Amino acid sequence: MPKNPADILMNPARQRIIQYFVLHKKGTSGQLAEALPDIPRASLYRHIKMLYDAGYLQVLETHPVRGTEEKTYCLTAQPMGENASEKEVSALIQNLLYAVMTSFAQYFQTHDTADAQKDLLSVSSCTLLLTDDEFAELLRRIGQVYQTYLNNKPSAGRKERCLTFISAPPKPSKGESPC
To answer: Domain 5-75 - what CATH class?
Structure first.
């Protein structure tokens, strides 16, 4: 079982499980199975267990159901732990960046007919001058756009698309830009 937070969180199925909890706040494995029908039930249970064992999910309540216990899960308040060190947070961010770079490299290496334009691959970067309040508003509005699509169910024509939004640290010193 992966111990590295990036190994746990970078799995597309586990990302979708976490998104479910972000949207619905709580849920049972049965509710997750209904919401994510393309993930086989046995795999779904393994992913839930992995997220629970790693401390990203907690049991909110339990109810007896036909001789067994049904658990209702929710996200933990501090998924990296209250005492996550700067080194751990830095490693998670670096692993995320590495995973994004790897996905692009794999795409171009394994697709003989890779067509970035047809597949709508994109990358962009810009530097904005914002107060903390303006930045919080920008994040809220981006969240609203994401919210519009997070409940989409698998259907013909729908493909998994990974969007990564990164807020880089402020400029280290006058005249130098991290972007």
So the answer is: mainly alpha
